[in-house]
UniProtKB/TrEMBL annotation:
Residues in Cytochrome c-type biogenesis protein H TPR domain copies: 123-260
Gene: cycH
Database matches in InterPro entries: C-type_cytochrome_biogenesis (IPR051263), Cyt_c_biogenesis_CcmI (IPR017560), Ig_CycH (IPR056412), TPR-like_helical_dom_sf (IPR011990), TPR_CcmH_CycH (IPR056413), TPR_rpt (IPR019734)
Localization of this protein: Cell envelope
UniProt xrefs under SMART domains: TPR
Signal peptide: none
Name of the protein in its database record: C-type cytochrome biogenesis protein CcmI
Cytochrome c-type biogenesis protein H Ig-like domain ranges (all copies): 303-407
Keywords tagged on the record: Cytochrome c-type biogenesis, Membrane, Repeat, TPR repeat, Transmembrane, Transmembrane helix
Pfam families reported in the protein's UniProt record: Ig_CycH, TPR_CcmH_CycH
Residue stretches of each TPR repeat: 154-187
Length: 411
C-alpha cells in the first residue's frame, strides 16, 4: 500500500510539473513591430535591385521604376499607424497554485469513486478473494452433480473425495473414493489416501481396503515415507508400540537429524516407548509423525503453529485447526492440508505433495506459498465469521522452521 501511494504521488508531481511550468515561466517579449519588419524587407528588396542593375539583369529604366514602387510602399507604411508591439506572456502563479491543489484532490476523489480502494488493504483483498462456505459447498455440489451425470469420470471422483476429506465429510469422501474404484489403485499416493481416510474413520486404525492398500505399498516401496507414517500410526492405535517404533525409527533414519521431522518422529517414538514400558492403554491420538512425510525439499514446508494468548478464551480444546498451503499467486484451492485440534497447540506441521487435493495442483508446482492456519468453530475447513486465523506469506516451497501465529478473529 505504501509503495502504491509513493508511486501515485510521484506521477502526480510529474504531471503538475509539466502543466505548471509554462504558467510560471517568464518569457522575453518579442517587441518587433510590423513596421520594422516591413522596413527590413524593403531594404533587402532595394539591395537586390542594386545587384541586378550592377549585373546588367535590369535596365536603367526598369531599375528606376521598381525602385520608385518600393519607395512608394515604404512611404505608405511610414504614413500609417504603427502596429502595437506584441504583449509579453504573463506568469500565472494563481492558476498554477489552483492546479497544484485541485488536480491531486480530483485524482484521489476519482480513484475512490471509480477505482478499487479495498485492494490497498491486503487483509481486505484476501478476505474478498476467500470463497465463502456456501460458495465452496455449491462448487462441490456442482461437481457431485456432474459426476452423477458422468459416473465414468474416475479422476473427478478422486477430486470430489479429496474435497470431502478436506471439508471433514469423511463418510462422503469414502463413498466418492469407492466410486473412483480402480483409479484409487493407480499410484501409491492415492492408495495411501484411502489408508489415511480409513484412519480418520476408525480412530487411527486402518481397516478394510485401506489396510490392504497400505500393506501393498509397503511391500512394493518399503521406504515410502507416508506409508511408514501411516503404518506406525496404525500400530500405535492398536497398542502395538514395538511395531510403531520400528516403522518410525526406519523413517527417522531417512530424514535430516536436525530437521523438524526428526524432532516429531523422536517425540512419537519416545511416547510409544513410555506407553510400552508402562503398559498404559493407548489413547486416541493425533498422528504423532504425520508431519514427518519426507519428500524432496521443494515439495514440502514445515514449521509450528501456535495460538495467540489473547485468543485462547475464544477457542475450545476440541475445536478443529486446519493448517494449509495456498499458492501466493493463483487459484485459491488449498495445495495441501492437515488437521489438528486446539488442544494440540502449539503443534508442529509439515505440508507436502501427498496431501494435494488434485494431481494438477501440488505444493511443489507453486513458486511462492501462503501458509494459513484456521481454528474452525463449525469444524468446516471453509472460513466463517468468528473463526480464528493466522498466516505467513510469502513462503518458498521447501522452507522449514516457519512460525505461524493464529492472532485474529474473522469478521
Amino acid at each position: 500500500m505504501t509503495a502504491f501511494w509513493i508511486a501515485a504521488g510521484l506521477l502526480t508531481a510529474l504531471v503538475l510539473a509539466v502543466l505548471c511550468w509554462p504558467l510560471l515561466r517568464h518569457k522575453a517579449a518579442a517587441h518587433a513591430s510590423r513596421q520594422a519588419i516591413n522596413t527590413a524587407i524593403y531594404r533587402d528588396q532595394l539591395a537586390e535591385l542594386d545587384r541586378d542593375l550592377a549585373s546588367g539583369a535590369l535596365s536603367q529604366a526598369d531599375y528606376a521604376s521598381a525602385r520608385s514602387e518600393i519607395e512608394r510602399r515604404v512611404l505608405e507604411d511610414v504614413a500609417g499607424d504603427p502596429a502595437a508591439p506584441a504583449e509579453a506572456p504573463r506568469r500565472l502563479p494563481r492558476t498554477a497554485l489552483g492546479l497544484a491543489v485541485s488536480l491531486p484532490l480530483a485524482a484521489v476523489a476519482l480513484y475512490f469513486v471509480l477505482g478499487n480502494p479495498a485492494a490497498l488493504d491486503p487483509a481486505a483483498s484476501q478476505q474478498a478473494a476467500e470463497p465463502s462456505a456456501a460458495e465452496v459447498e455449491k462448487m462441490v455440489a456442482t461437481l457431485a452433480a456432474k459426476l452423477e451425470q458422468n459416473p465414468d469420470n474416475l479422476e473427478g471422483w478422486v477430486m470430489l473425495g479429496r474435497s470431502y476429506k478436506v471439508m471433514g465429510r469423511f463418510d462422503d469422501a469414502a463413498k466418492a473414493f469407492e466410486k473412483a474404484g480402480p483409479a484409487m489403485e493407480t499410484n501409491p499416493e492415492l492408495m495411501l489416501e484411502l489408508a489415511d481416510l480409513s484412519a480418520e474413520l476408525n480412530q487411527g486404525k486402518i481397516e478394510g481396503k485401506g489396510r490392504e492398500l497400505l500393506l501393498k505399498v509397503l511391500a512394493d516401496q518399503p521406504d515410502n515415507p507416508q506409508a511408514l507414517v501411516l503404518a506406525g500410526y496404525d500400530a500405535y492405535s492398536r497398542q502395538r508400540y514395538a511395531d510403531a517404533i520400528k516403522h518410525w525409527e526406519k523413517l527417522l533414519a531417512m530424514v535430516p537429524p536436525d530437521s523438524q521431522d526428526a524432532q516429531n518422529l523422536t517425540a512419537g517414538i519416545e511416547k510409544a516407548r513410555s506407553l510400552m514400558g508402562a503398559g498404559a492403554p493407548a489413547r486416541t491420538a493425533e498422528k504423532p509423525a504425520k508431519a514427518a512425510k519426507a519428500d524432496a525439499p521443494a515439495s514440502k514446508v514445515s514449521g509450528k503453529v501456535e495460538l495467540a494468548p489473547e485468543l485462547k478464551a475464544k477457542a475450545s480444546p476440541d475445536d478443529v485447526v486446519f493448517i494449509f498451503a495456498r499458492a501466493a499467486q493463483g487459484p485459491r484451492m488449498p495445495l495441501a492440508v492437515v488437521r489438528a485440534k486446539v488442544a494440540d497447540l502449539p503443534v508442529d506441521f509439515t505440508l507436502d505433495d501427498s496431501m494435494a487435493m488434485s494431481p494438477d495442483f501440488k505444493l511443489s508446482s507453486a513458486g511462492e506459498l501462503r501458509i494459513e492456519a484456521r481454528v474452525s468453530k463449525s469444524g468446516n475447513a471453509i472460513a466463517a465469521p468468528g473463526d480464528l486465523s493466522g498466516e505467513v506469506a510469502p513462503v518458498k516451497a521447501g522452507a522449514s522452521g516457519i512460525r505461524l501465529r493464529i492472532d485474529r478473529v474473522l469478521p
